[in-house]
Amino acid sequence: AGALGVVVYRGGKMVGEGKITAGDLTSFATYTFLLGMGSSGMSKAAGEFRAKIVSVRRIMETIEGANKHEKQEAVSEKPPSDQMAHNGPLIVQNVNFSYDSRPEKDVLKGVNLTVEAGKVVALVGKNGAGKVRTKFC
After folding, report:
1. Per mean pLDDT, which range of 39-43, 56-60, 68-72, 93-97 is the poorest?
2. Which of 20, 55, 95, 116 can pair with 24 through a Cys bridge, CB separation 3.0 to 4.6 Å?
3. DSSP state letter for 79
């Protein structure tokens, strides 16, 4: 906005002096505005891209951790613990969660989830949406 103001001010003086036409000023001001909008959009896109890269890294770390865990299980000679030897579904019903620092604000509210035995579930969403909190509830 500041650059466009300078263009209009300085261009208005040049039109008054007869150095450029009003059409020239209008065209230049329009180009300046469009360039500013494009630059702003590029900055926003770059910020969003960086946020997506962080999310992709987290997903890859999770996948790599799961693959590492599967490989360890494949070579492990220990029998699975009684707690992990379930053949039925995992059922979570009406789970609520809030942080101690803000007990009035539910981070998770009324979460219901059923995961059939042997199935894998991925929780996806924006940063701060409660994915990690769901993991530890």
Report:
1. 68-72
2. 20
3. P
Q: How confident is the model at residue 34 (pLDDT cuts 50, 70, 90)?
A: confident
Q: Which residues contact 89 (CB under 8 A, 6 or more apart)?
A: 114, 115, 116, 117
Cβ neighbours for 56, distance < 8 A, ≥ 6 positions apart: none
Each residue's pLDDT tens digit, 80-92: 555 555 678 888 8
In whole angstroms, what is the distance from residue 4 CA to residue 29 CA? 6
The answer on 70 and 16 residing in a single domain is: yes
Element (H, E) at 90: strand 90-98
| 52 and 101 part of one domain | no
Q: What is the CA radius of gyration of the chain?
A: 29
Which range marks the domain in which residue 93 is found?
82-136
**CB-based burial of residue 133 (10 Å sphere; 0-12 exposed, 13-18 middle, 19+ buried)?**
middle
Residue 63 scores a pLDDT above 80: no
Locate tokens 């300078």: which residue? 6
